[in-house]
Each structure stands twice: as C-alpha cells, then as structure tokens.
Amino acid sequence: MAYLNIGPTAAALEVVEEAAVILVLIVVIVVAVVVVTEAVVVVVVVVVVVVVVVVVVAVVVVVVATVVVARDVAAPVVEVVVVVVVVVVLIVVIVVVVVVVVVVYLSELLNSYVPNRSLRSMNENLLVIPTTNLKLSERAFAVGNPMIWNSLESHVRNSPTMAAFKRSLKTELFKRSLDH
C-alpha cells in the first residue's frame, strides 16, 4: 500500500501492516488446527474475534494518528504514542494467544513451572523457559512466549476470567510503556 511520506509514522504503518499479516496467519493456523483436531470451537472463535478487533483498533489508531501528524505541529509526540499503542496491541495479542494455547492447542510446547520442593513460586502460574544456545532460538514460540508470560505481574497471570485478564494486562502494559 502507498502511504504519504511523512517520516517515522509511515514506518509505524508498515509495522502494523506486517503485524496484521502475522495475526491473520495465526488465525488461519488456529482455524486449521481446530478443523483437524476438532478442538473447542467456542474458544477459537473468541480468539479470532479478539484478534480481529485488536488489529482493527490498531489500524484505526495509526490512521487517525497519521492524519493528526500530517496536520499538527506535535508530530513527534503523536509518533511515539502510535508506536507505543502498536507495541502494546501486539503484546496483548501474543499473551491472549498464549492463554488460549495453554488451554487448547500447542500445550505440549508450553510447560508449567513445577518446583522440586515447596516454594512461594508454586502458585505463581509460571511457565518453563527452555534453554537455548542461539539468540535466534529465543524468538521461537516455545521460548519467547513463556518469557513474555513470566514477565507479567502475578495478579495478571492469575486473573479469574478472560475479561479481567485482558483488562489487567492492558493496564500493566500501558503502565510499563509510561515508565520507559
């Protein structure tokens, strides 16, 4: 797609476009797995709807911010906000996929942390992060997603419902983005 050449915001739009393609691929893979394994369709439909809504919201935010940047003097501030929103949206989608994966599909790639003796971390709902020898391996599903999951605060990981989980996840991620 051709965008107006207005600097870093055009790059942010390209990032969102690439993220949307990746999310569509994730949705296609999840749907294919459901068809093959006859898994719980309701959970997958909810995940697909959430992913589509998140992508649409991210694209709308970036488009609105692009229009504002094109007409406003505060372009650098808006560009930073756009990048923060895009990053937060992508992390939310990744974590929601991790939650669904732990319950439904690919659960054999994610292992719950179970200490050998009684520790306070027993009830933290942590995942095991496999050891890797290459930096590239840290991007693998089985390594990268547990890293993100374990970095969340305990009250987020142990949320009682999906709605409460999403709400506390977004709150934590926006707080993190303001701290940096």
Brief summary of the model shown:
The chain is an all-alpha fold.
How would you sum up this structure, described in words?
By secondary structure, the protein is mainly α. The chain has one domain (8-179). The protein contains six helices and no strands. Helix 1 (8-37) packs antiparallel against helix 2, helix 1 runs parallel beside helix 3 (75-103) and helix 3 packs antiparallel against helix 6 (162-179). It is globular and about 55 Å long. Residues 1-7 have low confidence and may be disordered. This is ABC transmembrane type-1 domain-containing protein. Keywords: Membrane, Transmembrane, Transmembrane helix. The chain crosses the membrane at residues 20-36, 43-68, 80-107.
List its traits.
180 residues; mainly alpha; transmembrane; membrane; transmembrane helix; ABC transmembrane type-1 domain-containing protein
Map the helices and strands:
Layout: H1 8-37, H2 41-71, H3 75-103, H4 141-151, H5 154-157, H6 162-179
Helix pairs in contact: 1-2, 1-3, 2-3, 3-4, 3-6
